[in-house]
Amino acid sequence: MSDKQRMVFITPTWAGDLDHFRVMRASLEQSPLAAFDHYVVVQDEDIALFEEFRGRSGLTLLSTRDVLPEDVERRRSHARRLSQRLGRNMTRICGSLKRVFSWPAWPSYTGWHTQQLCKLMLASELDYDKAVIIDSDVIVTQNASADDFVSDISYVCFADWQNHAELKGKVKKWIHESAYLMNTTSDTRQVNAYFDTPFVFDRQLLCKALATLESNTHKKWWATLLDRPPRRWSEFGIYKAFLLKQTPQISIDWRIPSFCHYLFDTTDPQKVVDTVGALLTDPNIHYVTIHSQASGRVKQDANTYLEPLLSLLEKVR
Question: What InterPro entries does its record include (predicted)?
Answer without folding.
Answer: DUF6492 (IPR045499)
